[in-house]
């Protein structure tokens, strides 16, 4: 069975500081991993994905994430946070075989203070 | 492209009434997903289609829920009869297998906020 854990309900950072939103996963076989962002009253927007290759993936709006197979983690990072980054962030996992079913984490709310 | 289109954006109905939610996926996408989002349960996959065929409906809560995809550009999620516990935001998303391989990620619509009183 697939599962995703986002251990922090909320992350608070000051504008200009680096941010990290944590994600760990469990899946049989090799994973496809994703990060999405949700702004109030909006649908989820795709940020970045790990499919294969380089463990460090770069995505939209300056975000990046590092795939760590031994720790089964895929933490989202950004070197310098903006107030406009404040939103709800979801990590998601899918098996690389057997269909398109994607499991989403519970979400982490990011607050960036000016 | 206009993205994934959902209608209505808001729906308020009384318990026992039939509710129909509509979705138009991105043109050329051959996967369509229906999700439900609540504070208590987070984002749940209800059902997904590939080439208009339901592939996995294991997330559909009960027989009161049904989904159809009569063609590549339209899908419906129906609840009959509706109950207060069905109140949630329902999202439709689509994805594609591109010419050079699958795109993998999903593109979400704006959602339908359903309130059942």
Structure description:
The complex is a heterodimer of chains A (114) and B (117). Chain A is an all-beta fold. Helix content of chain A is 0%, strand content 53%. Chain A contains no helices and 12 strands. Chain A has strands at residues 3-5, 10-14, 19-21, 24-26, 31-38, 44-50, 56-58, 64-68, 73-78, 87-95, 103-104, 108-113. In chain A, the strands form 3 sheets. In chain A, strands 2, 5, 6, 10, 11 and 12 form a 6-stranded mixed β-sheet that branches. A 4-stranded antiparallel β-sheet of chain A has the order 3-9-8-7, with no helix packed on it. Chain B is built from no helices and 13 strands. In chain B, the strands form 3 sheets. In chain B, strands 2, 4, 5, 6, 9, 12 and 13 form a 7-stranded mixed β-sheet that branches. Chain B has a 4-stranded antiparallel β-sheet with strand order 1-3-8-7, with no helix packed on it. Chain B has 117 residues and is an all-beta fold. Helices cover 0% and strands 56% of the residues of chain B. In chain B, 37% of the residues are buried. Classes of the chains: A mainly beta (114), B mainly beta (117).
């Amino acid at each position: 069975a697939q599962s995703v854990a986002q251990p922090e309900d909320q992350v608070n950072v000051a504008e200009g500081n680096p941010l990290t939103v944590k994600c760990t996963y469990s899946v049989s076989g090799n994973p496809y991993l994703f990060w999405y962002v949700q702004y109030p009253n909006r649908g989820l927007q795709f940020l970045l994905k790990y499919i294969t290759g380089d463990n460090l993936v770069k995505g939209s709006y300056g975000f990046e994430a590092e795939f760590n197979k031994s720790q089964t983690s895929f933490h989202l990072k950004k070197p310098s946070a903006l107030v406009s980054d404040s939103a709800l962030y979801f990590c998601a996992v899918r098996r690389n075989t057997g269909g398109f079913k994607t499991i989403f984490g519970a979400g982490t709310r990011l607050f960036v203070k000016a | 492209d206009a993205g994934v289109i959902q209608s209505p954006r808001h729906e308020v109905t009384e318990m026992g009434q039939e509710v129909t939610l509509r979705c138009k996926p991105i043109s050329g996408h051959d996967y369509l997903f229906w999700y439900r989002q609540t504070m208590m349960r987070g984002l749940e996959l209800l059902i997904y289609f590939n080439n208009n065929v339901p592939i996995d409906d294991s997330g559909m809560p009960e027989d009161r829920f049904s989904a159809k995809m009569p063609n590549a550009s339209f899908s419906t999620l129906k609840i009959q009869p509706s109950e207060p516990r069905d109140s949630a935001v329902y999202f439709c998303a689509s994805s594609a297998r591109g010419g050079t391989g699958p795109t993998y990620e999903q593109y979400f619509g704006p959602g339908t906020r359903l309130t059942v009183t």
